[in-house]
């Protein structure tokens, strides 16, 4: 119970929809092609992960929390969080409690400093402009916030609910007692996780493009943020 699983993938990987019930696939029929690809790949990845780690033949039934966050109706199954950025897809599974994950491909963003001044604290903005690459620093702060908000069931419009001290790897948030933030740079991709305080290990896997199975990966150099 003190570990979580992180599975990374590409939207171009070989995803089988055989474990996704037909009624689930029907929900994607009205989506535009790009959104449908993301949606189907995420559900296929989730179904395969539940088969590998929990022995489920098909994607189990889900419910939606009061905060709008999906979870499995069967309480014995792990909490999960899906995220994508460009062609990057990641899934976080955590049996120990609520989780949240975010992946961000580093990319140009117009007026990112204006966004930072509107969404981040003065301490964060000062840290950001002092970095060698302020735009990359922007994505780090954004990614950490997204992970926390997904754990809490919040939206991007609630960025102000958390304040980061990146220089000291600390944060202040409304509900932070049972949360630790994990952050790692993976090439030109940033990954952030929000996990229960008791989780001490993240097992990392990558989808094998040829078989669709999972390959165990060497752990990323995670930096951990604790509540102030």
TrEMBL record:
Keywords: Transferase. Residues 100-156 form the 4'-phosphopantetheinyl transferase domain. Gene3D superfamilies: 4'-phosphopantetheinyl transferase domain (3.90.470.20). GO terms for molecular function: transferase activity. It holds the Pfam family ACPS. Coiled coil: none annotated. Belongs to the P-Pant transferase superfamily. Gsp/Sfp/HetI/AcpT family. PANTHER family: L-AMINOADIPATE-SEMIALDEHYDE DEHYDROGENASE-PHOSPHOPANTETHEINYL TRANSFERASE (PTHR12215:SF10), PHOSPHOPANTETHEINE TRANSFERASE (PTHR12215). This is 4'-phosphopantetheinyl transferase superfamily protein.
